[in-house]
Design a protein that fits this description.
The protein is α+β, with helices and mostly antiparallel strands and about 160 residues long. It has helices at about 65-75, 80-100, 105-120, 120-130, 135-150, and strands at about 10-20, 25-30, 35-45, 50, 60, 100-105.
Length: about 160
């Protein structure tokens, strides 16, 4: 590790601790050359996951895109930011644990919809309407009927259509 003060590569670890989430090790280091102290953070380098889109294109998995999509679905809903982060953390963990280098975008979308359904039904319907590209009210109503049918003691949507 290069010293940020004098650029020397000769340093020693003074203290190591796990960061609060346990995924990162925080190390305090001291440069042998100039005696300056600095902090480094170490994280396991994960295999780059590629997302296979519906048209066959491949692009790197981008956590920020997933979080942004969920935030849009949850806008003005009582869903804490921490809950959105946890959904994405859980998704990433499951995908990494599989050890595969590629995953279909449809699989990611379905997992996110299941998580949103448990988190907030309105956010789920918003996300589903974009993800499944509803073309008209019938498709939207069908999704609502299915959602209501899955709730204990509930029937389909009232009214005609």
């Amino acid at each position: 590790m290069r010293c940020p003060f004098c650029s020397s590569l000769d340093n020693r670890v003074v203290d190591s601790r796990l960061a609060k989430d346990g995924d990162v090790i925080r190390r305090r280091r001291e440069c042998v050359a100039c005696l300056a102290r600095f902090t480094t953070h170490e994280r396991v380098e994960e295999v780059a996951l590629m997302v296979v889109k519906k048209d066959g294109r491949r692009e790197p998995f981008e956590r920020a895109k997933v979080v942004a999509g969920l935030r849009i679905a949850c806008r003005k809903r009582p869903v804490p930011t921490d809950a959105i982060e946890k959904v994405v953390d859980d998704l990433e963990q499951r995908l990494q644990a599989r050890g595969e280098r590629e995953v279909g975008s449809s699989e990611i979308g379905e997992e996110l919809m299941r998580a949103l359904q448990a988190l907030d039904e309105v956010a789920y319907v918003r996300f589903a309407s974009v993800y499944r590209q509803f073309r008209d009210m019938r498709e939207f109503r069908s999704a609502l009927d299915k959602l209501l049918a899955e709730r204990p003691g509930e029937a389909g949507v009232e009214g005609g259509g």
